[in-house]
Amino acid sequence: MTEKEIISTLALTRINYFQLAGLRLLYDTVGSATVIVENYADVREIIPDASPRLLEALRDIPVVMPRAEEEFNYCQQHGIQILTLNDSLYPRRLRECDDAPLLLFYKGTADLNQQRVINIVGTRHVTVYGQDLVRRFIQELKQLCPQVLIVSGLAYGVDICAHRNALQQGYETVGVLAHGLDDLYPPRHRETASQMVRQGGLLTEHFTKTNADKLNFVRRNRIVAGMSDAAIIVESAAKGGSLITARLSRDYNRDTFAFPGPVGAPYSEGCNRLIRDHQATLITSAEDFVAAMGWQDDAALSSARQQGIERQLFPQLNETETLIVNALSRNNDQQINMLAVGTNLSVGTLTAVLFELELKGVVKTLAGGIYHLLG
């Protein structure tokens, strides 16, 4: 891709910020942003019924060209790739969507056209239940499908939980941002984002100096959905961005899945409705998902069933630790006095061993002194 073509595409993107009708058609018809820019005053000769709004916007090409050149130079200086629709590195699944952006800004190492790409999204107010679902799903998926690119939005809640668990399991993971690559929102996810650049990447359609406005979060959902084979909704309230992603996935003929939740739980209501209305397939495990997608390797699934995926994922436990884990497996979320009765261990011993289990990431303390078995 030539420098001139990239800068021309940047200019077209600049005038197309509000999804100008007809510009994608014009681009597909001509096949070159450079040709459009060089002939912007004569577009009617290419598309006779081009809208007046499109013609008016194209008159701004000379005005936006300096900004396009500035953005190109910034990307060159900061190691940011500019992927146009005609670039082989552009996500091919997303290219199939009529409202795909003309270009994307990308910083990372992951191949955006891997054989298997999924997104995991959900509420920003993820519960312990939702965190456990994400953790277990990604752990199990790694056993069944070692090569999957995991996409999300780097937001609070389910998104960041998905990214961090993907990184821990050795998956590449890509965050789609609602602003330019000169900033990061939310700032507290900066450390995770830095790791993702080395083990995945950050992707956006937005120029630098773009604020993380509400509209941009809605717009980025189409990229999350469009570049994936399937969407997995973990937790969602009755309204939320993840439901938009689910709708877009269906519109793009992508597979859509949802984990069910407790009846009446506010952050399970959206998922339960998706399942009830046949807008998403119910799953309870990675094995369900892999089977529904037809990704299963029979030998791998058989081995996983025989060995027990979840127990494999725990670190080496001694006899006392195993006793406690087994008690929580039978009846999770217990206070220490109940564990003392169930394990016949003293409170003092339990306190010390539970502390060790927390350090190993096997249990977590909840409000009220309740111990919760993870994974």
What percent of residues adopt helix (DSSP H or I)?
40-55%
Mean pLDDT: 90
Distance between the termini: 46 Å
Number of strands: 12
Binned strand content? 5-15%
What would the principal axes of the Cα set say about the shape?
Answer: elongated
Given the structure, what is the number of helices?
A: 18
List the strand order in the largest sheet: 1-2-6-5-4-3-7-8-9
Task: Report the uncertain regions.
Answer: 308-312
Q: Would you tell me the structural class of the helices and strands?
A: alpha/beta
List the helices and strands and how they pair.
Blueprint: H1 3-15, H2 23-30, H3 33-38, H4 52-58, H5 61-77, E1 81-84, H6 92-95, E2 103-108, E3 117-121, H7 128-144, E4 149-152, H8 158-168, E5 173-176, H9 190-198, E6 200-204, H10 214-226, E7 230-233, H11 241-251, E8 255-258, H12 269-276, E9 281-282, H13 286-293, H14 298-307, H15 309-312, H16 319-330, E10 334-335, H17 336-343, H18 347-359, E11 363-366, E12 370-373
Parallel strand pairs: 3-4, 3-7, 4-5, 5-6, 7-8, 8-9
Antiparallel strand pairs: 1-2, 2-6, 10-12, 11-12
Helix pairs in contact: 1-5, 7-8, 10-11
